[in-house]
Amino acid sequence: MILVTGASGQVGKHLLQALSAKGISTRAWIHSERNKEAVLAAGATEVYIGDLTSREDAVTAMKGIDTVYYICNTANPQEDEIGANLIEIAKGIDNITFIYHSVMHSLLSDMPHHDRKRKVEKMLVDSGLPYVIIQPTVFMQMLTPAIQSVKNGGPLVQKFYTSGQTKMSYVDMKDYAEAAAEIIAAGTYTYGTYEFCSEGAYSLADMENIFSELTGRKVTSTFISDADFLATAHKNPDSYAGQTLLTMFRHYNENSFCGNAFTLTQILGRQPVTIREYLKKALQSE
C-alpha cells in the first residue's frame, strides 16, 4: 500500500491514475472531505483525511503502508518541516520506502521552494531509509493559460520569458506520473535521484513559432505583470507563496531552466511527449 500525500492536487491525481493502471493500491492523503470523490475517481484505493502538519495524523496515515510518496503543495513554507516529520516517522516503520517529489535543480537555493526541497532531499539521504528522489522540471500543464488564450485567438500569455536568451525545458505531467509508477512497480530504483524532463530547451521565439505553426496564424506573446499573475493565481502579493512564485519566475527569466531527457526516456522506454506534441493535442481539444 502506497501513501500519497497531496493527492488531490494535479500531480497527485495524475499519480493515482498511473498507479491504479498498474494495479498498485494507494491511500490518498487529502486535507478536505470535499476532495474525497475526486481522488477516488482518480484511482485511490483508500482515502485518509488529515492535516499534513500533524504528527498524530501522519502516524495514523502511515499505518500499514510500505511506501510514502511525499508531494507538498506549491510554495508551502513548511515543506521542509513536514518532510522532516514524515521521514522521522518512516524511520520507525520496518521495510518502508520514501519517495520524494522534489524539483529539478534543487540546489538553486536563491529560490526559497528549491531550498526547502534541497533540505528535504538531504534529510532523506541522511535518514538511512530506502529512498527515491524525483526532480521534475516545469510541467507543460503550467502553460494552460497560454494555450487557452491562443485557442481564443489571443496572444501567448506567459510569465517565463523576459529575454530572447531565456530557455526553458518542460515535462508532461502524464509522463511524470507514468515514470513514477514504473519506478514504484519495478522496485529497482532505490537510492537514486532522477531528473524528469522532456526533450529540448525552448526560447520565447521557439514557443511563438510552435504556436504559430500549430494554429496557422502569427502568434505573438504578452508578458503577465506580477500583479495580474498573483491575482489570477489567487495569491496575496505579501504572502510567502506569492513572493516565492515571483522569485521563481525572476530566476527563470534571468537564468533559464533547462534539463535533459535521458533519464525519463530510459524509465519510460520511449521518448517523452515533446512540447510540440503536447501543444498540438491541447490546442485541438475541446
Mean pLDDT metric = 96
Tell me the β content: 5-15%
Q: Estimate the helix proportion, in percent.
A: 40-55%
What is the overall silhouette? globular
Uncertain residue segments = none
How would you characterize this protein structure?
With 286 residues, the chain is α/β, with parallel strands linked by helices. It is 45% helix and 15% strand. The chain has helices at 10-21, 36-42, 55-61, 79-91, 112-127, 144-151, 173-186, 204-215, 226-232, 240-255, 262-268, 275-284; strands at 2-4, 26-30, 46-49, 67-70, 97-101, 131-136, 138-139, 156-158, 170-171, 192-196, 221-223. Helix 4 (79-91) links the parallel strand 4 and strand 5. Helix 1 (10-21) packs across helix 7 and helix 8 (204-215) crosses helix 12. The longest helix has 16 residues, at 112-127. It is globular, with a radius of gyration of 19 Å. The relative contact order is 0.13.
Primary descriptors:
286 residues, alpha/beta, seven-stranded parallel beta sheet, two-stranded parallel ribbon, 12 helices, 45% helix, globular
Summary?
The chain is an alpha/beta fold. Helix content is 45%, strand content 15%.
What is the secondary structure topology, with strand pairs?
Blueprint: E1 2-4, H1 10-21, E2 26-30, H2 36-42, E3 46-49, H3 55-61, E4 67-70, H4 79-91, E5 97-101, H5 112-127, E6 131-136, E7 138-139, H6 144-151, E8 156-158, E9 170-171, H7 173-186, E10 192-196, H8 204-215, E11 221-223, H9 226-232, H10 240-255, H11 262-268, H12 275-284
Parallel strand pairs: 1-2, 1-4, 2-3, 4-5, 5-6, 6-10, 7-9, 8-11
